[in-house]
Amino acid sequence: MRDLTGAPSFYHNSNVEDAFDLINEGNENCYIMVAGTKSDPTMKENFGLLPGHAYSLIGAATVTDNDG
Fold this sequence. Notes:
Elements: H1 2-5, H2 16-28, E1 33-36, H3 43-47, E2 54-57
Antiparallel strand pairs: 1-2
């Protein structure tokens, strides 16, 4: 991201438990964000994400359904 924007960039190697907190913090601070997944074949069945894939993040939200 630094090469593309010239802005400072930070790399976080996070786990599932703290990933949303980092994404939400970046969203609140209006950061440009990208994320990637490991090449773990269970990524799709466990999280609905393609393994070894890059994603552009456009926002974060906490959603509560009727079940809480």
